[in-house]
Design brief:
0% strand; transmembrane helix (chains A, B); 74% helix; disordered N terminus; retinol O-fatty-acyltransferase activity (chains A, B); homodimer; O-acyltransferase (chains A, B); transmembrane (chains A, B)
Chain lengths: 508, 508
Amino acid sequence: MGESDGNGAPTRRRRATLSAGRGATLTPMNGRSAAAFQGTDAADISSKDGGQQGKRDRSLETVRSTSKSKKKRRNDISDTLSCHKTQQSLLSSASGYKNYRGVLNWCVVMLVLSNARLFLENLLRHGILVDPIQVISLFLNDPYSWPAACLLIVSNVFVLVALYTERQLSKGSLSELAGFLVHCINMAIMLTFPAAVVLLVPSVTPVGGVFVLGTYTILLLKLYSYKDVNMWCRELSNVKAKKLARSLSCPSAQHLNGGDGQVCYPGNLSLRDMYYFVFAPTLCYELNFPRSPTIRMSFLLRRLFEMLFFTQLLVALTQQWMIPIIQSSMKPLEDMDLSRMTERLLRLAVPNHLLWLMFFYWFFHSSLNFTAELLRFGDRQFYKDWWNSESVTYFWQNWNIPVHKWCLRHFYKPLLRRGFSKMISQSAVFFLSAFFHEYLVSVPLRMFRLWAFMGMMAQLPLAWFVGHFLRGNYGNAAVWMSLIIGQPFAVLMYVHDYYVLHYRQETD
Amino acid sequence: MGESDGNGAPTRRRRATLSAGRGATLTPMNGRSAAAFQGTDAADISSKDGGQQGKRDRSLETVRSTSKSKKKRRNDISDTLSCHKTQQSLLSSASGYKNYRGVLNWCVVMLVLSNARLFLENLLRHGILVDPIQVISLFLNDPYSWPAACLLIVSNVFVLVALYTERQLSKGSLSELAGFLVHCINMAIMLTFPAAVVLLVPSVTPVGGVFVLGTYTILLLKLYSYKDVNMWCRELSNVKAKKLARSLSCPSAQHLNGGDGQVCYPGNLSLRDMYYFVFAPTLCYELNFPRSPTIRMSFLLRRLFEMLFFTQLLVALTQQWMIPIIQSSMKPLEDMDLSRMTERLLRLAVPNHLLWLMFFYWFFHSSLNFTAELLRFGDRQFYKDWWNSESVTYFWQNWNIPVHKWCLRHFYKPLLRRGFSKMISQSAVFFLSAFFHEYLVSVPLRMFRLWAFMGMMAQLPLAWFVGHFLRGNYGNAAVWMSLIIGQPFAVLMYVHDYYVLHYRQETD
């Protein structure tokens, strides 16, 4: 408690102490209080500079202590007599006070407590709804047909086609144009065929459908990148500047596989190289990926544990938290009861957002790092610091680096090279991603609302607005807001339509 | 989108660019792509260094641009061919990344949204419960007896007694001991008389009672300080060191009121000085308070507005938010249904805490600053940065400075002087404040549970625990936690007992 009287007016006190000293020489204090203070003061000293003090001459010490005690006593009184000084309150603008680090802890504590409350309330109201077995039924309708699995096996065909085409092109037994056409057809089929299967085969569940289409989309992007890069390599080797080619793709062009394991152009067209790229956690092909020297076992196991843990958590929270809210929000949606709809939307926003955050960590940190570690893939930048993003564009550029990198390298820059303006190219990128968002949602659900598409396209005006009118923390808050509110809104829309489409008919 | 490819491996690219340059000197690019890039590149240049560039020699520019375009083209390709580099994910410990300022915004947004949801839900469930008229009934049972007001008027008697006694003491017509006794009796009555009235007169409402007892307690502390300081002054003037006395209480001892308005000892014993101290926003008496030069009108009005606004808000939130929760938590408390009790406790914690924060701002910033400005009282330090406190003691030392200052000056330090250990003195302070907390709650409610008392005393072990086991942010979080959970717990206890005592009997 001592430190908090350190801010008595120092100047006045100094004066007081001096005069107190002089006063002491003139006259002794009245016995009582003086005695009282010798006591404590002597104690102070002995405690202050412990043992070796005791060894000194006693009488000397007592003299010192008494004189000291008198000074101290005066000092005390002068302090206590004037205990106020002119100063401002911390919260009034006049005092330039700014340190509110405690507030962050406050926010965290409040969030934890209020969510603990929600969790408890939820348990009391619904009991335990978690049911791991149920998850399987999300992937399988009838256990004797595995359409999703079959589709995944088929996907290899397209990979092999792409590889074969490239080989022919490298040999020159296929013209650039022909090769280009083959690639286009191959990719067109990759896009349409699984969609058709998902739409037509009834035993594909929505979740299974999303899984399959997701895989095919990723593969599509990978093969597109594969084709582009190989084309660029041919372009470079057409340019007969050997130095350049060597310096770029391979230091020694004597034999195809250089001594230091650097691969150069035609040498990369192998099955091994192809499948490494297919499984590598990136969408952008490269002849010589940076590789990490070893597989760090502890790192690998930690990521594996995270993967398993978060999978469980995601399932549990969805069953226990999301589904009850969604079910309870069906009625307000049908009645178009606006105030209740808003209440349900906000109620859904929190779990939905938390699940999204967990999913982000689960996929972009745990899973991708796990794969990368397993394949000794060097580049682990799967996301950047999107949580600090102060503009919508910054968010979209940094939360999903593999896709962003692909868009930049194979879509945005080529458009710029073809002389389109930045504005148009950017819109085109958003349009593409909007298309794929819609593709990945509508097809598995077998219903074509444009919520996801519009959701993505709505990012453009939002980006413009935030970019022009909000700065710093306000921009950041706006981005968070759009994330927290935007997603559950789309979710509710789809769920509602899906519910109306399927269950209402049954009830009627 | 341009900036985000600034982190391709710089060394490799540099090499590539150089060799690209050399390569360009040897052989021309194949027409198509070269042409394609001259186009964009020329555009880039003219856009880059606008007007004066146009004035120069055209042919020169085109040459430059074409050579440049070749370089750029190679550069592009070299970039795009190697778009990965070995690096860690931000969230993995290997990358020493630490910047999470976005998280604070996230917390704020989440808090705002979830509370908006609660607010909406509350409105939907209860409708509007706010009723300003009801507030009056909290102070008045029957409009023809105003016991609280009468008590406040009576309080002046004690002030005058204290002043009269001091005058006698200063004249020496009353011995130190006699004066001390008179003061003690005076204060004893101040403590017991209002309590007796509140307990015996049925028309005193709990709120009215708290108000009266609060006022009396403040007055008690003030008068105690008044007595102490005057005693110290006498002690000093007994010490015949004129210099000392002058330097401390007054620069010129010729006449009692010095030229520069500095008052010295006997001269301060005037009605005016006494009542200034009574109304001044401090508990520690001083002969010459620091004064602010003028009354800043804008400041005064802003504080006034805040006072009125927060009063309304506090009442409204209590009626709309607190009371329904408290009512709904009565049943679980009776049934001792632990899980539901916890749920209700957490549910109550949020509004209770927010109301406490508002109350803090309303009282310690708005009201006290308003009074201080009105009285041109200089020292505005009514609180320090308790929100950053990392230990319980730090919190208690900094959230209520007037009381803390009083305890330090008139209770803690005197105890130390009498040779008690810090530990004991500190416990004594907590004991005192625990007593007054209990006094201010139990008497108005007319029931003697020891919840408040125990709540305060529980701070000692808590302080010990936090001080020994938690540091930095954890300590801070613990302090917040104790605030957020501790208060509503005590509130629930009292409300429950009060409810059982009064309403159950009616129902039976």
